[in-house]
Specification:
84% of the residues lie in helices and 0% in strands. The protein is an all-alpha fold. The longest helix is centred in the middle third of the chain and has 59 residues. The chain is elongated, with a radius of gyration of 67 Å. 23% of the residues are buried.
Length: 541
């Protein structure tokens, strides 16, 4: 369907283009006819017709006069007059030749105008050929008469009268023939010119006339209406909301409908299954409604029993109140009712100030930040000399960063004690936890930095932010969201906070936390060693 509409659209477009060309040709024809039928040309046509009539009259007069002449009786007395008459005839013949030239020129002009008006050359030749042939014949006769007249005049001067008489007779014969031809040709030529002019005016009228109905319209107006209609038809087909767009929308809709039908067919089984479930659900709903009704009846019965029980309870409480009033109470009985339970408490640690309480949390943060700073400043992968194997290369770096980690841990604890007055219950254990935790943090930090370069330090900074909330170092874990509950056991700070709290005040066992830190040291140093071995082999290759 889309192809058919496209073909129709292309056909309408081509038809509109052709009608526009036809309309332009009609306008051009109308303009040329207007030029051909101008007032000046019409005057020339009338003058031509009048000239043809005058020529015919002159020829007829000449013939009449020649036929009246008595050459034998008047020859001697009228030689001079004949000579003058011949001279006059020669002048008339010259005028006739001039008029015949003008006639031929007018016929040529008329031929060009007919060709310009849209007539074919064959049609024009068919219309003008008799006129042209007659004009040529008349011109030939005039030329012959002129020649004869000139010879006659010469003969009158140089020849005898008999020769003159013969030539006069010949002249009469020729003029008689000319009169017969001109009396037929020239009136017909005038009539032909008149008909041609009238025909051209009819063509112009048929092109240019205007009207309201189809039979009153001219060809140009009608073709303009046709061209306008074709434009509207083209818009109706190719416009934004035309037939072409509508058919496309229709075919798209049919495609969507077909797709929907396919989906409906594909889902018919699920639809049937859903209908079955709906039926089952309706049955279950009905059963539930029955049960609800039964439960409502049971509830009404229970409310009645509750009411009865409330009355019984009220009576029993009144009886109990009477019994209490009747009971004699001493001081022991009063104390028993006032404090039925005795509470006992015990303190297993004591923190003198908030700084000491926060130290377990902030010491882990300080060690972590120190490890990040070391990895940023220290050339992590730059060998001190020639690299012989990956193990030596790793050991040359591990011996530095593990020692630095231990030293910064000892310095941190001692500075807290000497400058800020930090007083842990177990100083030695505190230093030991700080050293092991610092080496564990440094091992993690070093591995991520040699793998991801500066991005590793950035990742460790983000990981530290997660640990600040997930380690429960500031507030109890119970006050944190579920997310921190899930990551709490997986955060290194969790174990550093517990270990530091045990060494600072509580004195609890720290073997579990120490085992975690030692495991981190071993695992991440082995991973770092693997990276060094891999890079050594890669450089040798």
């Amino acid at each position: 369907m889309n192809r058919g509409v496209t073909s129709v659209s292309e056909g309408v477009t081509s038809l509109k283009s052709g009608s526009g060309a036809i309309l332009a040709g009609m306008n051009t024809m109308s303009d040329e006819l207007a030029k051909s039928l101008s007032k000046e040309n019409m005057k020339n046509m009338e003058a031509l017709r009048g000239g043809l009539t005058s020529i015919n009259k002159g020829i007829q007069t000449l013939n009449t006069e020649l036929q009246k002449m008595d050459v034998e009786g008047q020859l001697n007395t009228t030689v001079s007059a004949v000579t003058g008459g011949l001279t006059s005839i020669q002048g008339s013949l010259l005028n006739s030749q001039t008029h015949m030239g003008e006639l031929q020129t007018a016929i040529g002009t008329l031929k060009m105008q007919l060709l310009a008006s849209g007539k074919t050359e064959d049609e024009v030749n068919a219309m003008l050929l008799p006129l042209m042939q007659s004009a040529q014949a008349v011109g030939g006769d005039v030329s012959a008469i002129a020649t004869t007249t000139s010879g006659l005049a010469d003969s009158l001067k140089n020849s005898n009268l008999s020769e003159v008489t013969q030539k006069v007779d010949t002249l009469k014969s020729n003029v008689s023939t000319l009169a017969e031809n001109s009396d037929v040709v020239l009136p017909n030529s005038s009539t032909t010119i008149e008909k041609l002019t009238s025909g051209l005016q009819g063509v112009q009228s048929a092109l240019d006339k205007t009207g309201e109905t189809a039979d009153q319209m001219g060809l140009i107006q009608a073709m303009g209406a046709v061209n306008t209609g074709l434009g509207q038809l083209d818009t109706g087909i190719n416009g934004e909301k035309g037939l072409k767009a509508g058919v496309k929308a229709y075919t798209d809709g049919v495609s969507q409908l077909a797709g929907g039908a396919e989906q409906l067919t594909a889902n018919s089984a699920a639809l049937n299954e859903g209908a079955g479930k709906l039926t089952s659900g309706a049955a279950a709903l009905k059963d539930g409604s029955n049960r609800l009704y039964d439960g409502t009846v049971s509830m009404q019965e229970g409310l009645s029993k509750l009411k009865d029980g409330s009355v019984t309870l009220a009576d029993s409480l009144n009886d109990a109140g009477d019994e209490v009033k009747a009971t004699n109470t001493d001081e022991d009985t009063v104390e028993m009712f006032a404090a039925p339970v005795e509470t006992k408490g015990s303190t297993y640690s004591r923190i003198d100030n908030n700084g000491s309480a926060m130290a377990a949390y902030m010491m882990g943060v300080g060690l972590w930040v120190a490890c990040i700073a070391f990895c940023v400043m220290y050339p992590l992968m730059k060998p001190a000399g020639e690299v012989k194997n990956g193990i030596r290369w790793w050991f040359s770096k591990a011996s530095v960063y593990l020692i630095i980690a231990s030293v910064q841990a000892v310095v941190m604890v001692l500075m807290l004690k000497l400058i800020l007055g930090f007083q842990p219950e177990y100083l030695g254990r505190t230093i030991l936890v700080a050293m092991v935790a610092s080496m564990a943090f440094m091992s993690v930090m070093y591995f991520f930095n040699i793998c991801f370069d500066k991005v590793g330090s950035y990742l460790m900074l983000i990981f530290m932010v997660l640990q600040l909330g997930g380690s429960a170092g500031t507030y109890p874990l119970e006050l944190s969201s579920d997310f921190y509950h899930k990551i709490h056991e997986r955060m290194p700070f969790t174990y550093s906070v517990k270990a530091f709290r045990s060494t600072i005040s509580t004195g609890q066992d720290i073997s579990g936390e120490m085992a975690v830190f030692i495991g981190m040291i071993v695992v991440f140093n082995l991973l770092s060693l693997a990276v060094f071995v891999y890079k050594t082999k890669k450089e040798k290759i």
